[in-house]
Amino acid sequence: MTIQDHLLANYKYDLPPECIAQNPVVPRDQSRLLVLESPKTHSHSTFKDLPKWLKPNDLLVLNNTRVIPARLFGRKSTGAPVEILLLREVSRNCWLSLVKPGKRFKMGTEVCFSAEGSDASLWGRVIERDFTTGGRVIEFSVPPGKTITQMLDLVGYIPFPPYVTESTADPEQYQTVYAQNPGSSASPTAGLHFTPELLQELTDMGVKQTSLTLHVGVGTFRPVESENITEHRMHSEWVSVSEETVQAIRSTRESGGRVIAVGTTSVRALEGVARKQGVDGPGLLRGAFEGLIDLYIYPGYQWQVIDGMITNFHLPGSSLLVMVSSLVGRERLLSLYEEAVDKDYRFYSFGDAMLILPEARV
User: Fold this and answer.
1) Cis preceding linkage at 27, omega within 30
2) Strand partners, 308
3) At what angle do helices 330-342 and 319-328 cross, to 10 degrees?
């Protein structure tokens, strides 16, 4: 890592607005795939051709979180409109949330949330301010016989990212085909390219699959604001890694396979657990884990678990761009981004993907 790798200004790049994907490709696996094969070579492919780039005994680690209807629109008793984005349930029916306008969410503020065309309503009250995120903890009053999950399905909306402004996508297109555990406020978008047929093709050729859960929260999409990137601090996100996944990694190591994380969230989960627990040998987790992690990965990081990764193209100055830079080098990554723009790749959540093979790591 050089002094240039410390500077936030060196993680910026120009992106024409038309490169920001507003809708996903259909079918999902027809998106493009930029493959990094070695420290100096790369190829342009399609996601459907992923099997040609992987090997039998490789292990894909998937984040099976499911996006919840985390965006709520409501009104105070005065009639003033407000909006919140749920981040994480901190206790029963109490959610850490981002709020706007923030000045209207003072302690004790009550808000009623409802959905157009529905008689259902959900009341919330501000019980705490969170100074690390600038958000609020909101306690919801759930009607008798209902759960918070049921109420969110009635009054909430799937939160597309703020740069997706003209989408006609169905909310289900913002879920991975293997989404299982509800709790995320954003999708682990590197997984959006998989279809059931592609997953089966990979299985048939001997590529193994295992899952973990990281509920995507503010830690994922908060930009780096420190001019010296090493001073940035990640916010906590909830992770669950099962003993089954730990053993799948161990089996992969024993058979000479490679651990390929699908998405930056899977990377953060595996490496974050390794930091919490230590490792049980080269690339091996010590055991199952459930709890909060806040790992921030930047150039100079010593990798513990993953060999390679699949990822989308990330926002300038984001912690995700910084993370990928730590795997392949900042200058190379930005050069590849420039080439991707020239070749009309589609960027961000509904955009195209990149495969970083282990041979391409710095």
Assistant:
1) yes
2) 260
3) 110
pTM above 0.90, yes or no: yes
Residue 319: other Cβ atoms inside 10 A: 24
Give the CA distances from residue 226 to residues 7, 156, 266, 280, 331, in Å, rounded to whole numbers and listed in that order. Answer: 9, 33, 25, 34, 20
Contact 203, 94 (CB under 8 A): no
| 251 vs 105, more confident | 251
What is the spatial distance between Cα 56 and Cα 207, in angstroms, rounded to a whole number?
5
DSSP state of 230: G
Confirm if 32 and 346 have CB atoms less than 8 A apart. yes
Q: If we measure between CA atoms, which residue out of 156, 101, 111 comes closest to residue 138?
A: 111
Q: Could you give the CA distance from residue 193 to residue 24 in angstroms, rounded to a whole number?
A: 9
Is the CB of residue 113 less than 8 Å from the CB of residue 150?
no
Please name which of 103, 3, 5, 88 lies closest in space to residue 324, comparing C-alpha atoms.
5
pLDDT in tens, 279-322: 999 999 999 999 999 999 999 999 999 999 999 999 999 999 99
How far apart are the C-alpha atoms of 38 and 303, rounded to whole Å?
18
The span from the CA of 223 to the CA of 12, in Å, is: 12
- What are the structural domains of the chain? 3-67+169-360 (3.40.1780.10), 71-155 (2.40.10.240)
Instruction: Pick the closest to residue 306 from 336, 332, 326, 329 (CA basis).
Output: 326
